[in-house]
Amino acid sequence: MKKDEKLEQLRKLMQERNFSAYIIPTDDFHSSEYVGSYFKAREYMSGFTGSAGTLVVLPDQAALWTDGRYFLQAAEQLKGSQITLMRSGQPGVFSIEEYLQKHLQEKAVVGFDGRTVTRRFVNLIREKTDEKQVTFDGREDLVGKVWEGRPALSKEPVWELDMRYAGKSRVDKIQEVRMEMQEKQADYLLLTALDEIAWLFNLRGNDIAYTPVFLSYLLLTKEQICLFAHEEIFTEELKGKLRQEGVAIKPYDAIEETVQNLSDGKKIWLDSGVVNYRLTESIPESVEILDQSSPVVLMKAVKNQTEMDNMRTAHVKDGVAVTRFIHWLKTNVGRETITEMSAAEKLESLRAQMEGYLEQSFGPIIAYGPHGAIVHYAATEQTNAAMKTESFCLADTGGHYKEGTTDVTRTIVLGTLTEEEKRDYTLVLRGNLALGAAKFLEGVSGQNLDILARQPLWEAGLDYNHGTGHGVGYILGVHEGPQRFHWRTAPGAKSVALKEGMIISDEPGLYLEGKFGVRLENLVLCRKKEKNEYGQFLYLEPLTMVPFDREAILPELMTRSELGWLNAYHKRVYETLAPLMEEEELIWLREMTAELTE
Amino acid sequence: MKKDEKLEQLRKLMQERNFSAYIIPTDDFHSSEYVGSYFKAREYMSGFTGSAGTLVVLPDQAALWTDGRYFLQAAEQLKGSQITLMRSGQPGVFSIEEYLQKHLQEKAVVGFDGRTVTRRFVNLIREKTDEKQVTFDGREDLVGKVWEGRPALSKEPVWELDMRYAGKSRVDKIQEVRMEMQEKQADYLLLTALDEIAWLFNLRGNDIAYTPVFLSYLLLTKEQICLFAHEEIFTEELKGKLRQEGVAIKPYDAIEETVQNLSDGKKIWLDSGVVNYRLTESIPESVEILDQSSPVVLMKAVKNQTEMDNMRTAHVKDGVAVTRFIHWLKTNVGRETITEMSAAEKLESLRAQMEGYLEQSFGPIIAYGPHGAIVHYAATEQTNAAMKTESFCLADTGGHYKEGTTDVTRTIVLGTLTEEEKRDYTLVLRGNLALGAAKFLEGVSGQNLDILARQPLWEAGLDYNHGTGHGVGYILGVHEGPQRFHWRTAPGAKSVALKEGMIISDEPGLYLEGKFGVRLENLVLCRKKEKNEYGQFLYLEPLTMVPFDREAILPELMTRSELGWLNAYHKRVYETLAPLMEEEELIWLREMTAELTE
User: Fold this and answer.
1) What is the reported pLDDT for B598?
2) DSSP three-state, residue A337
3) Chain B residues touching residue A455 (CB < 8 angstroms)
4) pLDDT, average across residues B165-176
5) What is the pLDDT of residues A182-201, one digit of tens each?
6) Taking residues A531-558, what's their average pLDDT?
7) Structure ipTM
8) Which strand (E) or helix (H) includes residue A124?
């Protein structure tokens, strides 16, 4: 079926229901970053395959919003359709709310599958369209009625993290959550974020690419633990264990009815920016909503001792694989044909050789030359570049291991560099090192620290248009909050203080469109240093164990401190990896990590 | 009358009115930082003379809250009274709200002069005492009924800043404010902060120490400009001019009745954290309140070209006086008796020799040796220390000139220093220089930048327990918002982006109780640098022109960049001041500012 036919079928259904607009976002029912194939409704309807985008269909027109990462790709994929591309954030481009405000008539009804948006999202539109008395109907998944051959909902088996990997039992975790509920006098806690549920239960699944979680909802009370999930994903043994621990497994679909029947006068804790609209709307009016961030968000962000120890192990394994990859790439470029896609396969195969490797933690970014300037580049058959003995290969990849999750970026020198390339690499490296070397008082947030990574670039009148770092999950989403390194804050948003046990990426970059990109990313673990009359000091321990490329470094542009930090890091990398490397690699690694002086 | 007699008289009045508590803060009717002598009710009742403190009187007890600056002084001054000292912010010390929550009975009535507190302050107490159905009565100034020989309200003459000093006429300023009102659809704007009114009218007064403002309120509409002030403070000529420009002068006291009679259905813009409680409560229920920060706050924070140029001039004059003072102090210490108080007089006399000097911009802090560790030290006859040829003299002072306002801190070497003293001076200097050298993108706030000043100290496990910098008014309050350098943010508070034209202090410090203190403060002016694809870059131009004390600097602890910044600053100081210095001073200044190398 052609795109425009799909739209016409949808419009027929819209007309029958008197909908003036139908919104098709990129979300599953859980506000997940990546979604399973069942949920790719926007892709099915528009043909645009990017990971972010929202399609809005009106009776006589349709428009698709996506962000800067995808402007080129979306323009290409929408070609020949009647869908207009809306470049989010560009000057003069309407937001979805503004677009609806402009095009809707008085008392129009806007439809959507209420399970794929949040109340916060709907409220944004409501604010703009309230004067026209626009109403919303989230009861029906109309795309589902149009979609021929829709993939089934994923129901992959779950597996359990034993205590050696989890560090804390689910019974204890649930106990802690209940204490938070008690403090807020909440009778119910509704969790729908898949990584929160997986973390709380020490369970992992395989229903979403790159994120080992399983489709589920959780409703917790003082006495009950109701896990809504497909029963067939649990082994009999696990079911027995869960039952023994007081967990009642209910059908995945039963959450809605359960929520509709919550007891009068009770209080439910949920985050209306995460829980889907239909569920939030299903709560009886007699139940009070405590609309706050889930307590699990901060709990899982602060890794326990077992998680910290395992994360170090995972990073040593990953360091071996990535360092081996860099050695292979630098040795073989020019000798054999290496493309962005074949390099990604090579790196995946090297990771797969490491014991306990599970899967990639996100789609690999292996970007040669000018492609490195595209921040979220993903090679396709059409763009797949062959590498030459010049310029940089930017490799931003990561893996899940039984011991944890990695995310590392190195910008690899493939041949002779220009002075500009070296200068820019050195600037980004200085930022990475300065942030990594930060020592600071408890209470400091990523917003206070961000400038350390940007300062060398800002001094040169340069910048990168992305955050400096994100939290990282433990065999969960590679991007998780609440901590991050950033300098801008959205109005009303709060920057979270860093705490011992938080893991966060340190990844400044620089992107010269059409020329090259540099990004250097380590994961760092927040740790305690001395406590004195001034307070508790914290520092950042590097987890990533992969050398920087000395061929791109201009030591004369670095301060003595920066050289000291670099040499200390390289010494640590060498000592950590040396026992695990093959002979030829080891000789090379020794050279790569040898001390640099002014 | 003794303190306790005053309290008894007050309690009699409280009893007649059935008040269970009476609150006596340190504020005038305008939330001013300093207050005129008429308003020193808390000082009259308690005997405590510090600039910050709140007295709460109950039928059987009384307590006074003040902050860390005044713990010692307050303890001394409250000795022998029945008033308990409450050390704000210390562990286990109740806040005022908590104290009232604990001591009040059901349905108690709390009294205060509603003109000396804000609604925001009352709301804090209300939140804690709502369960007891406590109510508030701000109608009467009971201290006024007890106070024998109360000074009269100040009614000093006002004077006008001509365009050479103001840079923009009041007609134009009022026009801009009205445009902001229109945007917010506000019919009225109520301004009560004295510096906002003075700035808007290009008028200055003398009703408050250190702040050249005059007692007044302003009610602005689309058509009317009502200035509530004592008529006798204006010359006939000025009154004529104001009348011509559409300004109606009404009696200072008439504001309350005017506000009570605002028209139904209109919208009034005010800031309930600034406007006093009684005025806010006087607004009829039928008038909608837009509770937001006044538009004048940001307007006056961003200096216009004339103000910037004049501020530079003021700082050159101030630089001459302060540099001359440092030379005098270093030359004469040990040869003649110099005390903290006599040194302050000397500095004041040197400033007074400069053309256009008006007055001090705050109470001078001249603190010798261990006194330097007391952040807000003010020498009294009892503490007045004689200086010796050792340790530091910390001098934090400032002045108002016809061209602007200064605030500068130098820590002056009086003799041989210990290695610790030199190290600590150098650490603080490095922080001052690093922040001063910052280059950053528009949108950055003081919260992003603060770490630049703290980093050298944090690296050494040290810190200072105050903000790094505050905004500075133009011949107005030496402390003004909204911009500041700080890393902590109160919940709900927003850090304001720096803009070209903002002036802000850069003043890290280090305080070793019982030993010494170091603080180094420059005022800096935010300026535009290049604008490119990454955005508009900004930098900080130093306004303060006073050398740092090279006898305390350990160049070997500084980076090459830091030495470069120091040498560039010293070169600029020398070149700026040289034409204005006497021969002997000039020779000394040349040595003091000579290049330092590794």
Assistant:
1) 81
2) coil
3) 438, 452
4) 98
5) 999 999 999 999 999 999 99
6) 97
7) 0.92
8) helix A119-129
Residue pLDDT, tens place only, B369-404: 999 998 888 898 889 999 999 999 999 999 999 999
Strand residue runs (E) in B58-99: 62-66, 83-87
Tens of pLDDT, residue by residue over B137-165, are 999 999 999 999 999 999 999 999 999 99
Dist CA A330 CA B464 (whole Å) = 49
Q: Spell out which residues of chain A touch residue B443, defining contact as CB-CB under 8 Å.
A: 487-488
Asked if A461 and B537 come within 8 Å (Cβ–Cβ), the reply is yes
Evaluate if residue B1 carries a pLDDT over 70. no
Asked whether the beta carbons of residue B444 and residue A560 sit closer than 8 angstroms, the reply is no
Which residues in chain A have Cβ-Cβ distances shorter than 8 Å to B529? 461
Taking CA A254 as the corner, what is the angle to CA A251 and CA A256, rounded to the nearest 5 degrees? 150
User: Among candidates A360, A361, A376, A535, which has minimal Cα distance to A442?
Assistant: A535
DSSP one-letter code for B479: S
C-beta atoms of A461 and B534 within 8 A = yes
Angstrom distance (rounded) from CA B260 to CA B298: 28
Q: Which residue is listed with tokens 């690999």?
A: A364
| A-chain residue closest to B536, CA distance | A461
Nearest to A441 among B447, B458, B529 (CB): B458
Question: For residue A111, what are the β-bridge partners?
Answer: A22, A137
| Chain B interface test: which of A455, A494, A530, A532 (most B C-beta within 10 Å) | A455
- Mean confidence (pLDDT) of chain A: 96
Q: Is the pTM of this model over 0.95?
A: no
* pLDDT score recorded for residue A183: 96
Looking at residues B536-548, what average pLDDT do you find?
98
Of A441, A456, A434, give the one whose Cα is nearest residue A565: A434
Distance from CA of A276 to the nearest CA of B (A): 27
DSSP string covering A301-367, please?
Answer: HB--HHHHHHHHHHHHHHHHHHHHHHHHHHHHBTTB--BHHHHHHHHHHHHHTSTTEEEESS--EEE
Mean pLDDT of B211-232: 97
Name the residue type at position A437.
A
Partner-chain residue, chosen from A449, A462, A534, that has the shortest CB–CB distance to B463: A534
Q: How far, in Å, CA of B471 to CA of B465, rounded? A: 18
Instruction: For chain A, list residues whose CB is within 8 angstroms of any CB belonging to chain B.
Output: 438-441, 443-444, 447-452, 455, 458-459, 461-463, 465, 487-488, 491, 494, 529-530, 532, 534-535, 537, 559-561
Is the Cα dihedral B572, B575, B579, B582 positive or negative?
Answer: positive
Checking if the pLDDT of A485 tops 90, the result is yes
Of B447, B529, B532, nearest to A447 by CB-CB distance is B447
Report, as an integer, the average pLDDT of A566-589. Answer: 97
Question: For residue A566, what are its two tokens?
Answer: 């670099």
Q: Of B402, B28, B480, which Cα lies nearest the Cα of B217?
A: B28
**What is the C-alpha to C-alpha distance for residues A516 and A422, in angstroms, rounded to an integer?**
11
Residues of B in contact with A508 (CB under 8 A): none
d(CA B318, CA B344): 14
d(CA A433, CA A437): 6
The per-residue pLDDT for B542 is 98
**CA of B120 to nearest chain A CA: how many angstroms apart?**
20
Identity of the amino acid at A41: A
Q: Are B382 and B375 in contact (CB under 8 A)?
A: no
Please give the pLDDT value at position A93. Answer: 94
Q: Which of B534, B536, B556 to mutate to test the interface with A (most CBs of A within 10 A)?
A: B534
Is residue B595 classed as helix, strand or coil in its secondary structure?
Answer: coil
Task: Write phi, then psi, for A301 (nearest 5 degrees).
Answer: -70, -30
B461 closest CB neighbour out of A488, A537, A560: A537
Query: What residues of B are in the A interface, CB distance below 8 Å?
Result: 438-441, 443-444, 447-452, 455, 458-459, 461-463, 465, 487-488, 491, 494, 529-530, 532, 534-535, 537, 559-561
Residue B229 to residue B227: CA distance in whole angstroms? 6
